[in-house]
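Reviewers asked in the last cycle whether our approach scales beyond single polypeptides. To address this, we selected a multi-component target totalling 504 residues and predicted its structure end to end. The input consisted of the following lines:
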Amino acid sequence: MPTVLDVNGLSKGFTLHHLAKEIAAFDEISFSVAAGEFLLLKGANGAGKSTLLRTLYRSYLPQAGVIRFHSDHGPIDLARAADVDIAHLRRTEIGFVTQFLTARPRVSAEALVAEPLRLAGVATPEALDRARAALETFGVKPELWPAYPTTFSGGEQQKVNLARTLILPQKLLLLDEPTASLDANARAALVARLAELKAHGTAVIGVFHHPDDVLHLIDRVVDLTPNAIREEVRDDVAF
Amino acid sequence: MTLALDAPRIVQTRPLLQVQSVSKSYSDVHALRDVSAIAYPGEVLGVVGESGSGKSTLLRMMNLEETPDTGSYTLDLPDVAGNLFELDRFARRMLCATRIGIVYQNPHLGLLMKHSSSGNVAERLLVAGERSFAVLREKATTALEASEFPLERLDAPPIELSGGMQQRVQLAKAIALEPALLLLDEPTTGLDVSVQALVLDTLKRLQQDRQITMVIVSHDLGVIRTLADRVMVMRRGAVVEAGLADQIFQDPQHAYTQQLVHAKL
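The resulting structure, written as structure tokens, was:
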């Protein structure tokens, strides 16, 4: 399968100006992921798993290294790409599921889920139909579809979040603990959707507290624990 | 700094707005120092900074209300060429009336408070040359409707309306001619939280449905976070940092931006 992402010598730390302090997150990470591959990031709390995902998405600015993403437009280094290009890739090729929904005041659950489709050019009625189907898949009750998710429980918000982020197939999907706060049915729906996306060719990089749910999908593991053997094939891994 | 003025590698579209190396001093006060900004079509650029940072001065320059000591300003639009700061008063007025909309923090700056609300919107259309009463009425009503203004109050003067409603009239006036650029100067400051949410939602919807390029100035980081794709941080007349909105809020690089983000969140 073609390579989707080549990460080489990636390092990230934070400068806290008010403490005059540098905090290292991870150093010299290298790995790659191919289309249809599912890569698990593992490591203790604080090993930098979420930081790595955010750096790949460019919510965090890397300090050194290359993130070569093979986009539909050709290879591009996400570490140095212009903001406008990153914004474009986020709309079209790179998805990121975080643990939290960014709800907007006065925007309904179905409108939030339909938004990525509308921005991709799908007509509003069709986008809403597909959004409702996605909400149903993740077990959000129909009476909540037109309601504002700002007041939903954490679990219901996370279902809306998943429906929204996974509605469009992406080339690269980043998952930061997507099963946190989900009930069993929603977890099953998520795993089924991830299997579908993987089969469709989406490259997935994920952090899971309890990877048991997705064990059968994982192809490789990257261990961020300092001094660990960085990359392992899936068969050698004990979770 | 990631305020990349170099050509992007994927998005080939040219920026709609380019402000380059603008400086302005009032006697010995440097209001703007070598400020550059770009906004791509359909993008929302947020400008944050404390009072006196120069953000409102920059916005007024984008609305051609002020001319800098040095620097240039271009809009990539048909029939609009060259450095806009070099236009004469009449050309500036026509350009602002037809291609640029603005919503001020203070509705008194943008509205005739004793004229009817629909009349305020129609005035913008009149400046652009529209003369048919029926068309004026229809277009003003459509713009007010898009701004979610209650149509039964079309004839009410802004002075009789609440702050949130006055902002909707300003917004209707600003979008009546479908401008390419919408400038927003603290559009929700002073409004209560629920009204603020309504105005933000209307702005977001307008931006998504009509792909209007927006520049929004606010000291309220929540407002910027809700609306902006990219953010520029200003301090003492200069840009200290610029980047994608989530990057500025999650991984601010400059000491001042860190101070600002930590103070607000």
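Strands of chain B lie at 17-26, 29-39, 44-48, 70-75, 100-103, 181-185, 213-217, 230-235, 238-244. We regard this as preliminary and will revisit it once experimental data from Aim 1 are available.
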